[in-house]
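Exercise: predict the structure of this protein bound to nicotinamide-adenine-dinucleotide.
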Amino acid sequence: MKILVTGGAGFIGSALVRFLINNTSCDVVNVDKLTYAGNLDSLSSVSASSRYFFEKVDICDSIALKAVFVKHAPDVVMHLAAESHVDRSIDGPSQFIQTNIVGTYCLLEVVREYWHALPLIRKGAFRFHHISTDEVYGDLTHPDDFSGTLPLFTETTSYAPSSPYSASKASSDHLVRAWMRTYGLPVVVTNCSNNYGPYHFPEKLIPLVILNALEGKSLPVYGSGDQIRDWLFVDDHAKALFCVVTKGTVGETYNIGGHNEKRNIEVVESICSILDEVKPKTEGSYKDQIVYVADRPGHDRRYAIDATKISRELGWTPEETFMTGLRKTVAWYLENKSWWHRVRTGEYQGTRLGLGENS
Ligand code: NAD
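Solution:
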């Protein structure tokens, strides 16, 4: 099977590509524009494989995309390419509309034409897997309700996105489902909670806190830090994606989550506790570096995924608990300074950027 992965140089995309090369016999075509978030260093362990191919292409460029499909003739498309950082979407929504909505539209149109021309037997087996986020469901908590008793997000929860990022992802989800309903394109959609793990770009909460802590910088926490997110170790997500694309039912949506609801302040304190243990400071705790800063505009209080369907129907469950995954993540950042040093000295702009939230 040949899988075309868009956004394979990003955080989750690179975990998926590494998983596919190391654990399956699939060929992988990585289509990535290499924005600030794309990093081929994250693929150095697999890029020499004869089953790995890279195409530097913008998904908004239909002509270049068509050429990639002609050249590689994939059996499956897994679409991860996106602008993914909420703070950036607040400071400049335009690129999010362009890549997440227009880019998904361009890709869908190229895929539709390609799929339509496939021989019958390949046409039936073809899949377009759209990878999306739980943020499309919006805020699980009414602003005045901290009881946490509202039901978790299921696959039938109504969409209510709050940020330009989540609204653009919601739009792309709608486009993908419309291309199935209208044109019969065989799609599957997944909506996943916050990911964390190795090779995570250090503008996101967990890597930012690890690296700021190590560098003696402040550990900024939005508001009072009581925003709740469900956390999933990125390699568990990669396994879930492969499970859905190979075993999922066409037309279905699967929510993917880690059963790890944590308040942001708990996440930051857990990282500090691990660092206190594995790399103690000469004096005091890393927790002394925590500072509270003004909250992000439109900040959702709580996201939480009900991942019962993927577990019941496809047999997937996460292997890592939050603490086992977090320990692995901290260890990886301690051992891979060369990777994050190059990333951290790159582009970084915007007044809210760098405070750290997962997306
Ligand atoms: P990322 O920002 O780390 O990576 C995105 C990748 O897409 C980069 O390699 C970038 O170069 C590429 N890209 C961006 N614009 C492109 C374009 N126009 N053409 C081609 N490539 C382009 O993102 P991520 O965290 O790995 O997220 C991947 C996908 O998973 C996204 O669709 C995101 O919405 C979704 N998701 C992320 C999370 C999370 O916690 N990070 C959770 C759920 C869903």
